Amino acid sequence: MITVEALRFCDDYKIALVVLDWMHGLMSVTLPEPIASLSIPIDDARRLCAEGLVAFARGDIAAARAYLKRAAEGGDARALMALGDTYDPTTLTRLGAVGLKGDEATARNYYSRALAAGVAGSPPWL
User: Fold this and answer.
1) 63 pLDDT band (50/70/90 cuts)?
2) Cβ-Cβ contacts under 8 Å for 88 (sequence gap 6 or more)
3) Which pLDDT band, with edges at 50, 70 and 90, does 55 fall under?
4) Of the four listed, 7, 95, 97, 126, which is most buried by Cβ atoms within 10 Å?
5) Which sign does the torsion angle of CA 113, 6, 38, 63 carry?
6) DSSP state of 25
7) Where are the domains of the chain?
8) For the domain 2-27+35-116, what is the CATH code?
9) Which pLDDT tens digit goes with each residue over 78-95?
10) DSSP 8-class letter at 100
11) Sign of the torsion formed by the C-alpha atoms of 59, 61, 67 and 72
């Protein structure tokens, strides 16, 4: 299972719970059929998304974005929502990110793309 695979490397139990809670909200997502062939197998994209969520929960925003961008390119629509979170100024402030400014326009772009792909749970301000 993807959550177990990604979170077995997570040292902090609280971080694991946050990631599991976030992923639980996305479990009901029905991914649309791809228009073109995926650049990587969807299982790999899901693994990359999970790795990105773990990196994000640990506060490694740069690594999270790298994993999540690759996952989104591979067809995991949930990664788009998570990418929005990595750019969302409100989320970054809540996480206590230091030396990193959010980009509301980029966050909105990723959130909109996630909604268009069928992912529920967008921020209320979108």
Assistant:
1) very high
2) 102, 104, 107, 123
3) very high
4) 7
5) positive
6) T
7) 2-27+35-116
8) 1.25.40
9) 999 999 999 999 999 988
10) -
11) positive
